[in-house]
């Protein structure tokens, strides 16, 4: 017997062109009994009632026109008038050229003239990520400014850039996590056209482009979605308030909205992947989790376009389910941010023990991360006062995205201090080498490759002054609740000087520490492409010689050995018994990298905070300029 289940309407929202070239607006507004479309062709206000098409959806298709001058074209301003009389921008706006509160504008991404038809993406095993913030990456603070620096990133050796969120936010200064128009690229960065130009240029240089997207909340200012429909639920809560409605009544159109957004960036902007912010706050009790549904939809687009696309989840949960296959109850993401290596190195080498750093601080933590991917895999956490994480035994090492710095670990401090402001040059080289020689997928935060010391604190420019002040107070409460103690006076997040101070200096004078550090990054990134254990993300086994000396060996490459001295005294190395074709391949203390050891030194001992690698002689690489 066939049961006739009802099929609800599931339309994609926003303005789109029909096959005949006419523009169709679609809107989900179940909280409204009627909605008017307002347009301003030629500056003249027109009011057009939308047609209700069922299940809370409204639609309007522009009539055919006789002359091109009458056409509904890119740049036309429009908005929606609600029954209350309020006029609001489109929740699915593709372009907000005048800001978050102003009318939306038509933009048709399919009009862009791409030159990347031969681009097939970067395989996951070859991904090396460079995270950047568009506004502070260059003096211009735009997508075009990023394009100018792409050759230097290629020369450095990264294979992908990861852009912090660009969804339209209030004002012109923000990390990006306060966006309220998920489909609209920030106007002050160059808007949607600027983003398409950046992606096209990056592909020309052989670089993949990943975009940080936020599907766990919208920002507090200009957030009008609740006037249209139940985008939020009171059944779940996040640090930002009620959670996005992924599993409650009327959640299907909300899920569709988010999935459409993910596929929009991949299909229409040719992006090579997404980094999903704080996925543990994308709370969904449905039988099919939104993460699994999103990944499936994204990969369908990737398959249709015949290229590699990657979805990465950020989490602090150490949850292996993120990358487990669907058959094992997982979400099958390509990778996830794993913070335990950062926390282990930071607590050990900087000596901080506030907040979550109290769970770290020993060389043994570094060793366990190398062996297992995380330090906390179901064991007890003093910071959380409970067990934390689960086993990563079946998770491939390449799935862990690790870094010495990222926007969170730098910016979520009172002072916004980078690692280079907290550690000596020797310590910087030791820590960076451990990240780049790890079996994981490395992530660099903009400027770390040359020891940038410009701070990167949180900044914003809400148009509501009271909100600016409230955000500042709220961040102080958050720091205190997390157990972090301020070491300097907090920088006002809304002050322009706070934003200006975060700009990269792009300075590494010849023969300086910065110059040597950047050489080292280039050398090790070249090694990741040339040395089989790093190419293949082979598992590594760590041995604690004692509490300050660590030896790392790759299970399937026994002739390769890494030794790191975390102590304050030089260490005579134990006899290696290496065959004659094994030589010193790398040392953080070499003069070429800013150290004091002659480049031809065999390193029979390790200086304090020094690391060295031995392996097959044919693996030796030029140290370059």
Description:
The protein is of the alpha/beta class and 625 residues long. The chain folds into three domains: 14-111, Immunoglobulins (Immunoglobulin-like, Sandwich), CATH 2.60.40; 130-515, Glycosidases (TIM Barrel, Alpha-Beta Barrel), CATH 3.20.20; 538-619, Immunoglobulin-like (Sandwich), CATH 2.60.40.1180. It contains 14 helices and 30 strands. An eight-stranded parallel beta barrel has the order 10-11-14-17-18-19-22-23, surrounded by five helices. Strands 3, 4, 7, 8 and 9 form a five-stranded antiparallel β-sheet that branches. A five-stranded antiparallel β-sheet has the order 24-25-26-30-28, with helices on one face. A hairpin with a 6-residue loop joins strand 3 and strand 4 (46-49). Helix 5 packs parallel to helix 6 (290-305). The chain is elongated and about 80 Å long.
